[in-house]
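Table S2 (continued). Query chain:
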Amino acid sequence: MDIYENCQLCPRRCGINRHEKSGFCGAGTKILTAKATLHQWEEPCISYRNGAGTVFFSGCSLHCCYCQNNKISNELFGKSLTIQQLADVFLRLHDMGADNIELVTPTHFVPDIIKSLDIIKLRINIPVIYNSGGYELPETIRLLDGYIDIYMPDIKYFSPEVSARYSNAPDYFQYA
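Corresponding output:
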């Protein structure tokens, strides 16, 4: 079965058929990226020479009211890519000298990211980083086994009341 027919990739488990309409995250079935570039000073301990090969994915399962990337996360600013085009982006960043490939807010595109990484896995020799808001299902993280070298969750909340207020996710810490 196609994961996008009954989307259960994040703790929202919206069950939307993303072939027909967007899920809670705002995503359909097309990979949507806002930016892919060398990002200087991003996590200096792992991106210290040339910078992270950062790929910002559009959409988000949290929709925090204070989001610094609102245009990307909530307004879905970005460009649609095929699986092959995303693989080409990863290769381009690698060839530019990126210290790593950093996937930012990738949860809702995990199946296609895996397919893109499968295309290029023997052609890159840098770590792949999963940089997320931390609101993740264990099942989705298990899909990434063997693909991700470093997980970098941005833990936002401990309190269910606070996470409910700012991200409408009272179960945030349970999944983070």
